[in-house]
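Request: Could I get any protein with tokenized structure?
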Amino acid sequence: MSVTSKRPSEFIFVAAQITSLRSRKFPCSLWRCASAVMLAVVTLPGVCGAGDIEELYEHARFFQGNWKIEMEEAGKKSTETARCIGTAGKCNIWFGKDATSMHGYDPKTRAWRGVGHFKDGSRWERVISQPAQSRIVAGTTIIFSDTTLHPDGSKTFATVNFTCLGPDRFREVTTRKDQNGKPLPTIQTVARRVTSQ
């Protein structure tokens, strides 16, 4: 049964422990890794069977490989590399400069789910909503909604617009705001698959 025949739904994206942060100033470092961590972007139906999980994981394989990531935030440009691998348990693991993230299917909630924990004690969750598609191809667009909980109790919210540019490239535009609605600098990212890091 094709994912295209299923109704759209939401699911939660996972990120896990941060391996390092260049500074304790969280927004730039977090959104660099978060914007690049668009790993398992597929729509889950309300109920998922074993075949559906297989199909969804096949779609998430788009992100597996080595990536060169070019970012711009508040006029400042930077470049870094990342690597994504798949597991026997049908999860993707992303090894970035500032983060290691893991995500997969949660049988209890029947969703692609997880949470990220950062070196400064912050934690974030991602929800992905988009119409069902059979696979990620050039022109596929996806909206990510992120909430970050900081150790001091404050929150940061972000909307990430993902666009697949082809089999080996994607672009993201991340707009952010604090819990009071104050805009934070937008982050623009282009990731290109490379043969090695």
